[in-house]
Fold:
Amino acid sequence: MKKIGVLFGKERSFPPALINKINEMAVPDVMAEAVSIDKVIQGEPTEYAVIFDRISHDVPFYRAFLKNAALNGTAVINNPFWWSADEKFFNNCLATKIGVPVPKTVILPSRDLPTDTSHESFSNLAYPLDWQGIFDYIGFPAYMKPFAGGGWKNVYKLNSQQEFFERHAETGQLVMLLQEEIVFEEYYRCYCIGGKYVRIMPYEPRNPFHLRYVADFSPTPEKLQEMEEIVLKLNQYLGYDFNTVELAVRDGIPYAIDFCNPAPDADLFSVGEENFEWVVNTVAKYAIEKAQSFVPGKDNLTWGKYIHNSANKTPLI
Structure:
């Protein structure tokens, strides 16, 4: 029997629905359950062919457990090694190399010194930074947000240099991005599963959280195809099995705003019944595909084109 385990935290709609759907599909030699951990011993495999991870970004113990599981052959969704290495600024940098439009973006050192460092730790950092050059490049209004993290935490809209310095002083040890504002006509949040299944959802980030999926944007078939190609390209290069891409359409051009969401919102009460049903059914289908292709003792993780091309010393595109 090939087991699919779901590792989750306080979610109460998506994980049980996913487990139930996989088991309802009654695929021979495949079953699903909530992951149960009573000990983690180095180099020893788990009982799971596949583990679907929804929580390790918040629990370092779980991330270590998943790396050990992957080392012993478990297909972890998403790849815990890549997830540990990835962040939003790198994603934007990669997008510029593979032809995906993204907002102008710079990364900023933390306002406060990291723990256990001093000014001497930053011998290579110019002080002051070329703030005027940065502001001329990005322009105002602009957005400032953490280079790693999500959930709209510590996100600031800034209208001037003075406001930037006031808000940046509040960010402590967070490393922040400063990003051009894309004044959009339409906005979409797009699920991508397995690097091949895409659902493009109209999304209104200016609405209250529980109403953000209540939007009436109606893209043409040509625009839908263009956005799907962008979503697939990003996820195939990054190697995420499950991710969301946010696209803001300005002057007809879809800009990838945020596409480092390896544990994206999949709650019934925020995404709505139709989107929830699609994501449950599609993740169940993909998890079963991964279980059926599982080879004991082999590397069953998904690795993106960026890693493959780097290993083979071939150009990105």
User: Anything to note?
Assistant: The chain has three domains: 2-85+287-301, 87-101+183-261, 104-180. Residues 273-292 form the longest helix (20 residues).
